[in-house]
TrEMBL record:
Superkingdom assignment: Bacteria
Protein name: Flagellar hook protein FlgE
GO BP term, example: bacterial-type flagellum-dependent swarming motility
Pfam families: FlgE_D2
The organism of origin for this protein: Ideonella alba
Protein family membership: Belongs to the flagella basal body rod proteins family.
Function: A flexible structure which links the flagellar filament to the drive apparatus in the basal body.
Subcellular localization, as worded in the UniProt entry: Bacterial flagellum basal body
Amino acid sequence: MMRRLAAASIATIVMLALAACGGGDVDQPVGRIQAQQMPVAATAVETGRALDLAIEGDGQFVWRTGSGQTVYSREASLGLGADGLVNRSGARLMGLAPGSSDAAALVPLTVPELMSSHATTGLSLEFNLDSRLSVTDLGFTPRIDFANAGTYNHATSAEVFDGNGVSVALVVYFQKRADDQWNVYVNANGATVAGTADDPQPVVTLSFLPDGSTPSPSSTTLNVPSSVNAQGMTTQPIAGLALDLSRATQYGSFFSVTDVRQDGYAAGRLVSLLVESGGGLTAEYSNGQRADRGRIMLARFAGTERFMPTPQGWQQVSGAAPVITAPGLGLNGTLRTGALETDAQLRSHTGH
């Protein structure tokens, strides 16, 4: 008898809880919760938390539960989980993969906390060499002494990275060989890239037109040797590094370097995730790199569909499939960060 009373009490409590949160009517037995319309929007509450998202206008966030079900909700208090961006119930936020535009192919949005290093494959320099200067290649051996500024005319530096993301300090030296001709030398952490320590050699010799334009050749390839950097770390060789010199000039004006570009970087940790009003996600890492992490997409319903409440969101049980578009497109609202519109607020607002 006591067991029957306990079971009846638990059933009553569950039924009352479901009725209080919009999960069904109190006169419906447990397991027969009535399907209902999706609650309408309520006023968002400011939280100041960057990964709390509210929708200003129409639309529902799309979620994938651990069992593979698709559910919808206007609540998005996001966290980073092993499966990507998740809500407080562990459901994964769905959207477009980076570079995708297919709204029919939503995927769980992921944001890696670590970015792997990337070895430099290309270095591009934009600079002007002063054509008024005297020749410094006097034909002796060695042709250049990196410690003697009298054996070259100009120098500039650039940081590149090996396959482990370890910094390699390159210094590029420019030595005037003759009118309109310049030898280019490179050392890496103090070690010459071409030739030997006792007799460094140019990696390329540039020839300019009489008007100071159009260097030839405009590029070369470097095989950067292993060396020891300023932090005492032994660096890996960097083979086949493309050195682009096509933007070089030789005018009668002071030496200047106006641009240095290279595509390598060290490993980095996630420092922030930027969410655009249109749903775009950009991850920022401690190595200064940014990465596109896709786009949040919203679902919009006609209003005649029926849904069942679940702990993760609202599961559609009847009606037409939703229209999936990005925030701000079609009739969808835009995203607002630092604010939250909870399901509890929605139920209260609609009287459930």
